[in-house]
Design a protein that fits this description.
Layout: E1 4-10, H1 16-28, E2 32-38, H2 46-54, H3 69-74, E3 77-80, H4 83-88, E4 98-101, H5 114-137
Parallel strand pairs: 1-2, 1-3, 3-4
Helix pairs in contact: 1-5, 2-5
Amino acid sequence: MDKKLVYFLCTGNSCRSQIADGWLQLLGGERYVVQSAGLEAHGLNPRAVQVMSEAGVDISTHTSDVISQELLHRADYVITLCGHADEHCPVISNKDVVKWHWGFNDPAKATGTEEEVMTEFRQVRDDIKARIEQFLREGQ
């Protein structure tokens, strides 16, 4: 059975799309090929790496990439994780692609103490995991 390609998109490919990429690779990697990218490449956010490591998922070797037209047109699923990416996603010529928007807060915009910021990162991490688990349960 060919694995389906899931392409997670965000604005900067630094936090949310990286977290989703890590979770789906861990939880559904036997069923899916997983890629992530952004409208821009902002670099991998160290706090995203830290909170995923706390959950036992290593995303430290991930790279922050700009959307590839080739992957976009080959994807079975294109899932945007922020409103900006949803609104500005390039046109997809693949008529068979399933395009969804899963909106999550941007933890990189969290303010407060370091602990408050990290709490926001952990909350987004856990929310994304729950949505990935739902995706897998629904047997997409």
